[in-house]
Fold this protein.
Amino acid sequence: MAQFKKSVLKVAVSTALLSGVTFSANAAEEAAENQVERIEVTGSRIKRTDMEGANPVTTIDAAAISKMSVNNVGDLLQNLTSSAGAAVNTQTNNGGDSSTRFSLRGIGDERTLVLINGRRVVAGGNGANASVDLNTIPTSVVKRVEVLKDGASATYGSDAIAGVVNIITRNDYEGFELKLNAGQSGEGDAEAKGVDLTFGTASDRGNVVVSLGYNDQGDAFQGDRSFSEYELRAYADGSTERGGSSAPPWSNMDGYDGGNVTQGPEFGDWRPYDGATDSYNYNPVNYLQTPSKRKYVNVFANYLLGEFGVLGEVNSFAEMSYVQTVGKRLIAPEPLAPLIFFGTAAPYSPDNYYNVKYGPKDPDGNSFQIDDWRRRMLETGGRKNERDYKTFRTVVGFNGVFENGWDWEISYNFGQSDATERAEGYFNLARVGDAAGPTGWLDANGSLITDADGNAIVDAANGAQLVCLNAEGAVIDGCVPLNIFGQPGTDTAITPEMLQYISGDYNTTELGQNRQETLSAIISGDLFDLPAGPVGFAAGYEYRKESGYYKPDSLILQGTTTAGNAVSTEGGYDVQEVFGEAIVPILDDAPFAHMLELSAAFRYSDYSSFGDNTSGKIGLKWMPTDALLLRSTVSTAFRAPTIDDLVGGAAIGFPEAADPCDANTYGSDAAYEAVKNSPNFANCIATGVPANGYDSDGVEQIPSNTGGAENWGGSIELEPEEADVLTVGMVYTPDFVENLSFSVDYWEIQLDNALSTVGTQSTLTGCFERGEYCDRITRFGADSAAYGGIITVDDYAVNVGGIDTAGIDFDIRYTFDSNFGEWRLSLDGTYLLEYDKHLASETIDHVGRFEVNHDGHFAELKTNFTVGWSKDDWDATLTTRYIDGVTETENGWWTDPFDRSVESNVVVDLQGSYLVTDHLTVTAGIDNLFDEEPPFVFSAFGANTDVATYDIIGRYMYLRAVVSF
């Protein structure tokens, strides 16, 4: 009988997965003749016999995953049409962390709860993180992925605002499977290779499944694609020009008359600097795809212990996973501009030998002090980061069935991720200041050569060793004077000895950890019978403890290097929760009510960090006929402040932003004069801008302090964010067309009291336009050569504004047979109706837009259309992924702000497989068959496009072989 139940359940589940979203309770009961096992479906804790509840759930099974090239759950989820916003992936180089995250509905990856087998997963990253790194979950262990697109805090607690991703693993696998895969792009880069081995065995009392594997993802560079070879600036007339950084290898620095001068790409005589021609193109040496290596092992086991009285037959179970990911980042060599970029004075002395010999001169031919100097340090080979992440997770527990037929389970879930990040290619600004200061010469005996007055001679003909001098004229031990005036790649380049002094000993190390412990107990069963059926009920208790830390080394802690400065983060909280859920059948086989069912859930949470919270949910499922299902849910959801929100140490970042008080923000002198004459300019002056204005000369990345709310000095205390969520939908499987099903769901989320930051750009704009946030902006004073320029913007965590978003999900599936084989057609999509982000005093509409400073990409329509075919031992799949065009606002110092249209994007993937023998399947595929380039998104940060949304690698070919017994 047990084997019969298992086979019927397999048929039932397979049918549900084939239809995508439809499998009614009545159909399940008829198919299984009341013998289908009761199972727990994502969105409910009550075990039941049907796969379809009142919640909209998208299910992707192992067969569907095998028809893709993805090797981890993160890449799989980012291909869904419900993915939006700016969640990072391994195409994110500058600003990424070698992870892949999923932002359902585009409201943030921290608002999408990730579960494995219905239980929480520890966050991943560099420490004290808020969301799960989905790279740590390989597809080889996945039986199916269920995406609940509904608020679910009443069922699962904090973070389940947009929805839930529940990864169901292959913990009942029997047999042996070896999978080999390899691939590369049409350009010959982005190579990937991997191996996965899974084996399982079973007895009458239990089973064990072991899965282990290794994946190696190669790199690609922006310089190897035409769309990203150069940093491009766009203009309102549709033209573009090559841009870049104002810190080039040929130097950009103060001229004697106040304007900036350069040697130019030709490394010739000093001349006026021209941003249109003399900027440095940093794109080619940046990764387009970051390399990483990942190895992992997973073990799933269960064992029937035996009969234990009232507890019934008691089963023990365990899960264990270990994943190590080593990923790299490479961005262009450091733009060393101590004063303007890093707020540290390091003037080039007129008594510095290299300034005297090679620097710009005044009209009399004399050297002068250079306060603002900028030089791209090509000699370092780039800024390199290597991350080593280790994630361990284990679950142990017991379950069974009481004598009264109620299910029970108790489990302990432990997860820990540890991170080590090392960086090189950065500089000690104090040493840079010494090396750019006055110099002198030692003679052969080691004595300082001086003139008759005892002053060091800058250019001594008989000098044996050039040395740095302090303000008193004494030799600085170990200091090597710096020459930024030479040409990289020649004998005039910065020498290894110069680099060693200012950079070599200042490679940094950062440590981090996320830790999670959960103890839970749950019971479920039938309370009593009503005429329409039994009332299902579930209740439970959960205790969870979250802790984490981020620890920079002393170099970062003290702000010693240009790698940035940050303060340690360490903290934690715990929460106790009780929850309950009921499903009440109201009508069964009645006129116009083949089935009518009401569900309700609640959860009470008591946090050590802020207090308590209560969430609730009500759902309705109505089947007027056995072919039509109507469903709706109304719920409240919440997200508790994370460790980083609460106590995150202050750190500095460099987001792109335009200062409305800066002449460089405007396209002409006349436009800036109008700004200075406007009433708003008084807000600029109040923050420290000179009355006649200032010009940053092309600074586009603004130093910004980020961190937890404690950095406000106790003036702000965080509260949980809260959301109201509504879904209304239908599932229809018409009797007159066999194997056709479709679903349509309307969803609406109203998020209030959002845990976020105001944002650097919004802070600057708010101060300029409304006088808000001005106290968060710190500028250089009148005694500085950069008078009026921004030193930092404070952008710590706050509860601010919210998000109102709504849309429609649709899914159509049809299968049919022909003389040429079996065909599978499917179309799923998301149509975005509303996305308004509310800040303190403004509302920003995101629909159909790319918002660089406001969360990323929000296409109005996204669809995936799949055509599948199989005959005998052959199978083929063609998938067309469509992303609607959007509008972006281009805004830079070279142009006034203007809106431009971003083209729609269509990518076609093709895969074919052949069953060579009963034990060997070979698959070949091409992603982006027609080598479609991503559309230009000039306001995006990196590669002239949105790397979080589009396929940027181009045509990608892969092979896979699966051997199974």
Q: What stands out?
A: Confidence is low (pLDDT under 50) at residues 1-36.
